[in-house]
Amino acid sequence: MSGTVRAASELASWATTYQPSAADLELADRSLTDTVAVALASRAEPIHRVSAALSDAGRWAVAAHILDFDDLHMPTTTHISTVCVPVALATGSGAAGYLAGAGVMARLGTMLGWRHYASGWHATTTTGALAAAAVASHARGFDAEQTARALALAVPASGGVQRSFGTDAKSLQVGFAVESGTRAVELVAAGASAEPAAVDAWMALVGGTPAPVDAGGPAVPDGLAIKIYPCCYALQRPIAATASLADGVDLADVRRIVVRTPEGTVTPLIHRRPRTGLESKFSLEYAVAVALLDRHPGFASFTDEAVQRPEARRLLELVEVELTPGGDWLLAGEAEIEVHTSGGVAATTLAQPPGSPQRPPTGSELAVKLADCLTGLDLEPARIGWDTAADLLHRHLPRRRADGAGLTA
Fold this sequence. Notes:
The chain is of the alpha+beta class. It contains 17 helices and 6 strands. It has helices spanning 7-17, 22-41, 47-51, 56-65, 80-91, 94-118, 123-140, 144-153, 168-189, 197-205, 236-246, 277-280, 284-294, 304-307, 310-317, 363-373, 389-396, and strands at residues 254-262, 319-324, 335-341, 344-350, 399-400, 407-408. One of its GO terms (molecular function) is lyase activity.
């Protein structure tokens, strides 16, 4: 690699000069509603007792990611909004700040590429620290030089691995990235120096390739995928495919379930025999079983109790996974599902699940998701706006009391 400063300076230049289009702002508003609703749905999760020590932005990032129901940028396999929405809300930078960070995250993730993710890095957190710095830099009104320094100061926190998937550490890694990115901006504001070329050096170490930043097109190239089921995006397609067969299958008569998919599409699915609800969100075998059992798996399908259901365990043991070579993203090729019974074989294939950018969620699908997330709250999705969301999160998510005596809502 040459010593030419490229990535930090070009990303910073883009973030400080881009002008959001109407389509960009529409994406930002949808991302805000989806992310805040998912964060509010987590309000009873035990993780809040752990994450309460973090800043608002860090806590909100953990809340938005713990259920694994937040959006995904498919080309980079990064959860953009769980990073950029919390920072935008905590800093008051709004939709424009969100888009600045989201654009940096998408472009940085493109430089890192699939090889980075496939080697085991948690790309949301490796890109997330720098994206958080971009959002907070926008809020501070930084110029390109200051923003590039902030990106460089966020590099030490650009870590996180997929082996943490299925534990609290996955969402906490996102909270750490958010806090580190915002802290980098405060250090730059205080006068800290940094070498922007550190971003290029880091990228080479983690398998990326610095390249000229595409300053054209939308803030988030290729848009964002919206999850329909509260689990890893790699499970959205096999669940949707299997669920389409469920109504015609007698569960008691199921003898064998076969899943065929490119090997790259199962990269984050590291739990073959899950023991907990969190692990089940990263289990292909469990996802297929629960799609037959529950038809439309929801929050209740991914709990510790649900994983231990005898019928779920029985069906899980019948799943056979046949991986075909290749696949350089989570929706490579097609997923093929076969359910074998004494009466024959029910089979289907699926390339694009509902909620993918090529098959955007319908109004009714999105409404069902938001209603599920906001169950128990006297809150309509229309009330979630850039000027109200921070207050909603403050009011409804647990946080550590000022006297240190515990949590409060």
